[in-house]
Amino acid sequence: MLRSVIYILGSLIFAFSILGISLLRTSTPDFIFYQSSDTYSQKGFVSPVEYYLPHHGLLPDHPFWPIKALRDKVWVQLTRDPIKRAQLLLLFADKRISMAQELLQNREGELGVSTAVKAEQYLKESFIQYQEAEKLGMDTADFLQKLTRASLKHREMLEEFKNTAPNDAKSVIVETLNTPKTLYEDTVRELIRKGIDVPSTTTRE
């Protein structure tokens, strides 16, 4: 009897794992680009603040990546506290933008760009969770400052990606840049409302 129960549970876990991996694959943006050898050293935007990205761990081209991505999704779903969920989503956003940088450096344009797009989706979701925490009257000041700095760093890196991504990927990067730009504006409004100093932007010609 016990052996049968263990067998059934094992089968269910395996089935849900396969389903979860399949859903992850279908929800990941697909792009096909042709790598160009043209690179440019000029940066149009440089973040004026120091913001350190965490070590990203496994890259999306690793065989075990689907398991890690599924774990991340489950982790988010199990985190009910809005500010903790916002922090977790920001962590995933930072890790994925760092992954995208390495993938593009390795000339994996398609995967690098789709990973960058996913990073900005996580960044946007992080702000949504911040708003939920605000509604509950939670202390969000420190996180808001961090999110503002993160938006500047993400913008800087996406500007860099425009110079290293395949030529036909640049339009996707430009569109994706709207997320950290808009997020910076949104977080700045919140900082001003709270009477907190705002980090400024600078442009390098």
Overview features:
205 residues, mainly alpha, 7 helices, two-stranded antiparallel ribbon
Quick summary:
The protein has 7 helices and 2 strands; from the N terminus they run αβααααααβ.
SSE diagram, text form:
Elements: H1 2-27, E1 45-46, H2 65-78, H3 82-105, H4 109-135, H5 141-164, H6 170-176, H7 178-194, E2 202-203
Antiparallel strand pairs: 1-2
Helix pairs in contact: 1-2, 3-4, 3-5, 4-5, 4-7, 5-6, 5-7
Task: Give the strand tally.
Answer: 2
**End-to-end distance, in Å?**
73 Å
Helix content: 55-70%
Shape descriptor reads globular
Number of separate helices: 7
Q: Which class do the helix and strand fractions yield?
A: mainly alpha
Report the portion of residues in β strands.
under 5%
Q: Which strand order do you get reading across the main beta sheet?
A: 1-2
Q: How would you describe the oligomerization state of the chains in this entry? A: single chain
Protein model, in words:
With about 200 residues, the protein is an all-alpha fold. The protein has one domain. The chain is built from seven helices and two strands. Helix 1 packs across helix 2, helix 4 runs antiparallel to helix 5 and helix 4 runs parallel beside helix 7. The protein starts with a helix and ends with a strand. The N terminus is likely disordered.
